[in-house]
């Protein structure tokens, strides 16, 4: 079987958000499992979904998401579109015009099942609206504040006026807070 080829039929066991076991259910595999699992006890599932004739695939991850909503197209509609297309995780660079704090609040609402949406990782834009953003000491303060809020990373894109000492301060502080530093295609970001 080549990459992407379907496998089945199978029983898929899920605990929380994780697939814990995939057990093929063809006759040969069932006999092999009986032999290998003699005496092994498996818990009875809380819920069974009959998926005969259906396919299962892992959730997709959108690494470049913008949640730009308005009164005509609310955020929950955007989330439903993502989920309807199989996207279960997003890396969001904005949530409307909200700041990092508002983005983290939305991430927590999603994690707490108060909003039906893909899992969200928060990467706010580095904005020049904060006067501290253009000097090394101020940049360090912002990174520390965002880290304390629960931000997962930072998106910096072609910001004129950000001198090398500011970039260096952001990178050093991001690494100190457990984020990795990456720079690709002229776009820069700090990630966990």
In short:
The chain has helices at residues 27-36, 75-84, 100-111, 136-149, 164-176, and strands at 10-15, 18-24, 60-67, 87-95, 119-122, 153-157, 180-184, 187-191. With 192 residues, the protein is an alpha/beta fold. α4 packs parallel to α5 (164-176).
Task: Describe the fold and architecture.
Helix content is 31%, strand content 26%. It has 192 residues and is α/β, with parallel strands linked by helices. It has a 3-stranded parallel beta sheet, with helices on one face. Strands 6-8-7 form a 3-stranded antiparallel beta sheet. Strands 1-2 form a two-stranded antiparallel ribbon. α4 packs parallel to α5. 20% of the residues are buried.
Q: What is the CA-CA span between the terminal residues?
A: 35 Å
Topology as a string of helices (H) and strands (E): EEHEHEHEHEHEE
Mean pLDDT metric: 83
Strand order of the largest sheet: 3-4-5
Classify the beta-strand content into a percent band.
25-35%
* Annotation, overall tally of beta strands: 8
Percentage of residues assigned to helices: 25-40%
* Category from helices, strands and their pairing: alpha/beta
User: How many alpha or pi helices?
Assistant: 5
Reported for the largest beta sheet, the result is:
3 strands, parallel
Q: What's the alpha carbon Rg, rounded to whole Å? A: 22 Å
- Unreliable stretches (pLDDT < 50, length at least 5) are none
- Principal-axes geometry comes out as elongated
